[in-house]
Amino acid sequence: xxxxxxxxxxxxxxxxxxxxxxxxxxxxxxxxxxxxxxxxxxxxxxxxxxxxxxxxxxxxxxxxxxxxxxxxxxxxxxxxxxxxxxxxxxxxxxxxxxxxxxxxxxxxxxxxxxxxxxxxxxxxxxxxxxxxxxxxxxxxxxxxxxxxxxxxxxxxxxxxxxxxxxxxxxxxxxxxxxxxxxxxxxxxxxxxxxxxxxxxxxxxxxxxxxxxxxxxxxxxxxxxxxxxxxxxxxxxxxxxxxxxxxxxxxxxxxxxxxxxxxxxxxxxxxxxxxxxxxxxxxxxxxxxxxxxxxxxxxxxxxxxxxxxxxxxxxxxxxxxxxxxxxxxxxxxxxxxxxxxxxxxxxxxxxxxxxxxxxxxxxxxxxxxxxxxxxxxxxxxxxxxxxxxxxxxxxxxxxxxxxxxxxxxxxxxxxxxxxxxxxxxxxxxxxxxxxxxxxxxxxxxxxxxxxxxxxxxxxxxxxxxxxxxxxxxxxxxxxxxxxxxxxxxxxxxxxxxxxxxxxxxxxxxxxxxxxxxxxxxxxxxxxxxxxxxxxxxxxxxxxxxxxxxxxxxxxxxxxxxxxxxxxxxxxxxxxxxxx
Length: 578
What we know:
alpha+beta; Immunoglobulin-like; five-stranded antiparallel beta sheet; five-stranded mixed beta sheet; 18 strands; 20% strand
């Protein structure tokens, strides 16, 4: 008979896969939950509300835990907030290993299970289960392990991939991710790339419709490829036990250096200072023209003009410039999260790989969709003026956000690194002057701008404490202490490379009425700086059901669960919640 806990009729049972295990073998221990239909328990992370269900195993000598797996959670909406959990019959698996030198005797495993069951109200539950197996030379299966109406466990009787793909939950998450990607087009992180996107429209507005659609498809492909690569790398990093979250690439200093140099070069190109060989002309290289004949013609037969027109000649027509632009948009956009995107990413990191990659694909498709739709309906942009001298002027204006992005990336870097990277940028500007002295004004301005940036970043301007919030470094222990003192606590998960985070800082956290109200209510403020990889902050985000920044959380003294605020804040929105 199953053991019954105290949490609203939730039944829990521990069932071993084998009654008798032999030395050196792996076996499963199933922790089975039978949950009433109107009740649910929470996953780990639980989302915006609830407490995670935990299982603590006390193992005898000779038996060790390999991994613990849960099924993919369901999504629940409670008072406008999203949480993840389980209802009905659920089975989690502990994969165990019996060592080769284990002594042949009876071995008992103690499982301490804690949960919070919620229906019309919420009641915590707890139970200790004691399960024994015998160790002998010949193993014997436990038939009860394969009986009952428990949900199929992860890692043993896996759901069919097609069933997972077609499930309503998967497509709901995909829709949520698509909406988050769509809104991401309006977030500050994408602003530096708006000029590139607008110029692409203007250049293509007078082209053949087929060519315009080709540009749109490859621009979208660039976005999707980068999102899927980043998503796959993130899942792999977490699978090998390294705590990481969305935007992890900008926690890597060499990558930030590379980006700053790349944006500087592109910005100079937009100014017309020098011309970068167009990546879109890559297809004209002899390699692509002769590739089909090299591969398809028999040995000893020389390539000819007819052969060049077959096979791989399509590579010469690919709009590589649009593909590159799409990839750049993704690289700049991915560090930040927007509305709906934070929830989608949080679910992705606790879901099976198939569902997780569907979520990443949905985010990318949402980000690419405006450009893709306009490319398939080019008549919508026919009102744009024809390319001319005015476009060159507009192109120079579009270089401004690219230069600003470069300074932003320099600000993210440690000061010593920013100094030598700035030296390289100054060198590039001086080379331009030596190459063509008629452009001396712009290089001079750029050099002075870099020197001014370095000076301002090294010299701290004194600011009155009355105008600032009193931020303390975030730590789990400090949060516990402040909550124990019955204080309202505001936690801001942020990073220097997150433009949305910096927008919140300027528009909200430096607002006079916000600072005044926080001081009046004696609200404690903790800053979780995620600029560099910090496993404790990553873990805190995971428990909140989030995978990236910005994330802003309020802990009220009379509420157990935190209030998770929208990604983009305003003073009025923040003050309303406290």
